[in-house]
Amino acid sequence: MRARIVVAILLVAALGLAVAGIATYFVQRERALAGIDQELLHDVDDLKALARTGTGAAATSVDQLLRDAIQQNVPGRDESVLGIIDGEPALVPAGRAGVRLEDDPALVRRFVSEAEPSNVVLGTAKMRAGTIRYVIVPVAVSGDASSGLYIAAYDLDGALGAIAQSFQVYAIVAAGALLLIGLVGWFVAGRLLRPLRWLRDAAAGNSARDLSQRIPVTGNDDISKLASTFNLMFDRLQQSFTAQRTLLDDVGHELKTPITIVRGHLELMQAADAAEVNATRALAIEELDRMSDLVSEISLLAESGRPGFVRRSSVGLTELTRSVLTKAGALAPEREWLADGIADGVAELDVRRVTQAWLQLADNAAKYSTPGTPIRLGSERGGGRVRDEVRLWVRDEGPGIPDEERERVFERFVRLPAVGHSEGSGLGLAIVSAITAAHGGSVELTGTPLGNTFTMRIPVGDEHPQTAMEERA
């Protein structure tokens, strides 16, 4: 790809330089030719003026008129003149002219054959010494039977040589520019494509066993941003594989205990003892129920990350709060359940999921708080830190959770031994966190040594949290 980019840049640059150089060359060449023609026609005007005025006395012969004209015209380095009388070269300038026209008999015959008695002729001819541009002026004097031709010529090779040399210099400079463009393009293309090579190496080096390789990101261009996006993807993949591996380890550990218990009792059971058979049967059913609950909770956690997990509908917050308070009272009738605040208004929530999460917090409070103390449920709607949100909480009185453990309680299969209660799978708070996250919110734990408060913060503003969460997923 790097070579293709550089080749494409060089082809476009070479085409542009070639077109610009060739166009400039031909424009300058046409201007030079137009200038030569103008000079030749100027010589014609000078000859006509000389014929009208003379050099002090009117010319009485063709020879005299041509001689006067050649004497007044001093040829330049690339110019030459010639006087022809009756078809033969008769007069040439003194000294060395740029081109000796009289030395080429074929050219002289061409001049004679192309001449017209009353018209000036412009032409271009190829001779041994090079290419010339010439003008043929017929000359006649009253009283002289001779016919004359005044020839003025320019050496095109010499006149256009400077332009050709300029084009050669341009070609050398253009070649150097192409080389520089190629070097810069090779460096820039390599710099831009480097993250892609790192991406290839990272993708080849990462595996299910090791997803730690990342792509170094330098710059702020599109490919660097692509590399950053792939790094985020690798982070999510690594987190997913880690969570999957942890989940499988935890599930294996959690299922091993009931399976071992059931197997041990079945192996030691006396089939002839009806009481022992019934006890073993009851224990097996209890452990199977526990495994079934565990599988259901794991399935719920797996489902929480999929689109459509939350199905919103309009719900009155007052009715929702009173309904959850009544259901919580049925979980632990021996406890005192109090309303700690009831919100007004309507919100878009998944009633079933929010009720499930709220009752999970209530059940945890009933299990882990000090027996005999009241438990308070409350709701409030108001402007949160970012947008309009609903806050739903459960507050208990009892042993507080240490600060260093507050983040861990929302992880899967975490049960804190300090609270003095070991029942449950350790997935309850993880389910609460997953349900609030599916709504675009979060769950927070605050507390003191005398109690804990779990608060679900669920946004209900114009922005659709479920859509945002699905896009992030």
Helices and strands in order, then pairings?
Elements: H1 2-53, H2 62-72, E1 79-85, E2 88-91, H3 105-114, E3 121-127, E4 130-139, E5 148-155, H4 156-159, H5 161-205, H6 222-268, H7 274-304, E6 313-316, H8 317-331, E7 337-339, E8 346-349, H9 351-368, E9 375-383, E10 388-395, H10 428-438, E11 442-448, E12 451-459, H11 465-472
Parallel strand pairs: 7-9
Antiparallel strand pairs: 1-2, 1-5, 3-4, 4-5, 6-8, 9-10, 10-12, 11-12
Could you please describe the fold and organization of this structure?
The chain has 473 residues and is an alpha+beta fold. The chain is 53% helix and 17% strand. It contains 11 helices and 12 strands. The protein has helices at 2-53, 62-72, 105-114, 156-159, 161-205, 222-268, 274-304, 317-331, 351-368, 428-438, 465-472, and strands at 79-85, 88-91, 121-127, 130-139, 148-155, 313-316, 337-339, 346-349, 375-383, 388-395, 442-448, 451-459. A 5-stranded antiparallel beta sheet has the order 2-1-5-4-3, with helices on both faces. The protein has a 5-stranded mixed beta sheet with strand order 7-9-10-12-11. It has a two-stranded antiparallel sheet with strand order 6-8. A hairpin with a 4-residue loop joins strand 9 (375-383) and strand 10. Helix 5 packs parallel to helix 6 (222-268) and helix 8 (317-331) runs parallel beside helix 9.
Q: For the terminal residues, how far apart are their CA atoms? A: 32 Å
Average pLDDT reading = 81
Biggest sheet layout: 5 strands, antiparallel
Strand fraction: 15-25%
Oligomer: single chain
Overall, the morphology is rod-shaped
Which bin fits the share of residues in helices?
40-55%
Strand line-up of the largest beta sheet: 2-1-5-4-3
Succession of helices and strands = HHEEHEEEHHHHEHEEHEEHEEH
Structural class call reads alpha+beta
**What low-confidence regions span 5 or more consecutive residues with pLDDT below 50?**
418-422, 462-473
Q: Count the strands?
A: 12
Radius of gyration: 52 Å
Number of helices: 11
